[in-house]
Task: inverse folding
């Protein structure tokens, strides 16, 4: 049975610029084949069992999925996986039909009889100048815009750019892939008649939190680009519209602009915080430090579900615990009715919401979303001396069990899931290194638990050694989700520069802004 391929535009970088249609395709994909310039934050929309491939800069540069070295390998993968009956998403930076080789890939699929579709994306040709405060058209400046390849690949194919036509036009020029050829392209335009005083700009990493914009007259732009050390990816804009940046720039004025903020949650749980951080201008980086696995022995969880008549209530500590518990009930062909007459306690609003999604309202949600808060709530209601079943991860504090037993109750702990350390691509860990070591630096790191902190340190140490791991941690602001996580950091010899006032993404964002504002 033949599968299907969706050729999807991922947008320029900002994860919020992915279209709703693109997000929907990612949620259904069996296989995702992504370009190198695709933001890894988009992979949080995928199913946990998706088979992920990503194009690399070189055969030795790690990717967020299995590395794909070249276009021929991409074509082969699309054909093989779709021919096997799978749904494939070919995820391309920007828009697949704007210098994206989308039509070439579609021709390959059509020749093999594989059905496909195009899902448009936001092109960097428009979005990068816009993020720099440069409109590509304006009634007082430019009646048209030309999108031009600044790369010689088209010339090699016998389709050279008509520089004389472009130089004499009245519209804005946007040259894609133009950093390496910036000087040559500027000289060609000037030689063809363009005024060397024409305002010009080069924008690197448009819509990303580390976006950089260099502005200069056309005759001087190459010197400025070299002096600033700008590297790909970037677009070049030529035209009087560049002058409007003085009044219409906005992206670089947001509070976290220019700051790289690392989120260390599980891949499937990082999306909301990444979007909040990006919305404040940060270059939000997902470094997965947790992965969820079933317990080594499922019989204990199934046995607890079969023995509900032996307990008065069930404590669930996290959304993952909720999923594990209700999956265990479903495995026994039971549902929420099995909890009739039982007191259900959920630690945290996220856990409570996960219960709501399963069709049941928790009886107890402590205002302080941690073990101490639950113990205090149970004590105030005279419920500590009951028979309690607690479903949680394989590691955690025994505070609840100690309090229940001290009050004369019974406490049964069951492991619903294990938290393990996932493999992190080398390309990603290298990007966290300070610039003098070949990376892009790290300004803040968000930790939601002591375990994420331990896993992060272990991952960076394995990849780059203890000295560089400590340098990354020493230069960055460390932000903890609540006092328990702050205490865990201190026990590891790390400082918590800011502590979120609540266990929500909004509270974590506020703590990051506060930490960055302190300098």
Result:
């Amino acid at each position: 049975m033949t599968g299907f391929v969706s050729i999807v535009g991922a947008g320029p970088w900002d994860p919020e610029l992915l279209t709703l249609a693109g997000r929907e395709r990612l949620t259904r994909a069996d296989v995702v084949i992504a370009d190198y310039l695709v933001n890894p934050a988009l992979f949080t929309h995928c199913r946990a069992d998706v088979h992920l491939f990503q194009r690399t800069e070189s055969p030795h540069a790690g990717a967020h999925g299995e590395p794909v070295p070249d276009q021929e390998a991409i074509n082969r993968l699309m054909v093989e996986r779709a021919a096997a009956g799978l749904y494939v998403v070919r995820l391309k930076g920007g828009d697949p039909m704007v210098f994206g080789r989308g039509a070439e890939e579609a021709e390959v699929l059509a020749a093999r009889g594989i059905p496909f579709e195009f899902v448009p994306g936001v092109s960097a040709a428009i979005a990068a100048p816009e993020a720099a405060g440069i409109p590509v058209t304006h009634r007082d400046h430019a009646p048209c815009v030309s999108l031009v390849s600044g790369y010689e690949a088209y010339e090699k194919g016998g389709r050279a750019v008509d520089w004389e036509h472009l130089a004499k036009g009245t519209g804005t020029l946007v040259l894609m892939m133009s950093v390496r050829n910036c000087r040559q392209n500027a000289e060609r335009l000037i030689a063809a008649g363009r005024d060397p005083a024409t305002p010009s700009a080069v924008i690197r990493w448009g819509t990303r939190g580390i976006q950089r914009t260099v502005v200069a007259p056309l005759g001087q732009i190459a010197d400025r680009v070299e002096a600033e050390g700008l590297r790909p990816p970037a677009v070049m804009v030529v035209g009087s519209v560049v002058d409007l940046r003085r009044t219409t720039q906005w992206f670089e004025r947001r509070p976290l602009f220019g700051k790289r903020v690392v989120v260390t949650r599980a891949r499937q749980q990082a999306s909301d915080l990444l979007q909040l951080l990006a919305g404040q201008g940060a270059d939000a980086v997902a470094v997965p430090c947790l992965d969820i696995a079933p317990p080594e022995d499922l019989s204990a969880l199934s046995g607890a579900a079969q023995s509900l008549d032996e307990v008065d209530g069930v404590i669930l500590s996290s959304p993952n615990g909720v999923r594990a518990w209700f999956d265990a009930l479903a495995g026994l062909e039971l549902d929420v009715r099995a909890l009739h007459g039982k007191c259900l306690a959920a630690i945290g609003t996220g856990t409570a919401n996960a219960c709501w999604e399963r069709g049941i309202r928790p009886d107890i949600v402590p205002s302080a979303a941690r073990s101490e808060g639950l113990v205090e709530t149970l004590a105030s209601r005279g419920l500590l001396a009951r028979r309690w079943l607690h479903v949680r991860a394989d590691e955690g504090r025994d505070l609840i069990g100690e309090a229940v037993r001290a009050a004369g109750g019974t406490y049964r702990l069951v492991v619903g899931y294990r938290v393990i350390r996932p493999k992190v691509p080398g390309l990603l860990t290298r990007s966290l290194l300070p610039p003098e070591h070949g990376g892009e630096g790290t300004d803040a790191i968000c930790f939601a638990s002591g375990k994420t902190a331990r896993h992060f340190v272990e991952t960076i140490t394995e990849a780059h050694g203890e000295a560089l791991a400590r340098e990354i941690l020493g230069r960055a602001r460390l932000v903890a989700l609540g006092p328990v996580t702050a205490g865990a950091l201190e026990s590891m010899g790390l400082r918590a520069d800011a502590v979120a006032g609540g266990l929500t993404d909004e509270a974590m964002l506020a703590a990051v802004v506060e930490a960055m504002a302190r300098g």
In short: Confidence is low (pLDDT under 50) at residues 58-63. The chain is about 35% helix and 20% strand. Residues 450-464 form the longest helix (15 residues).
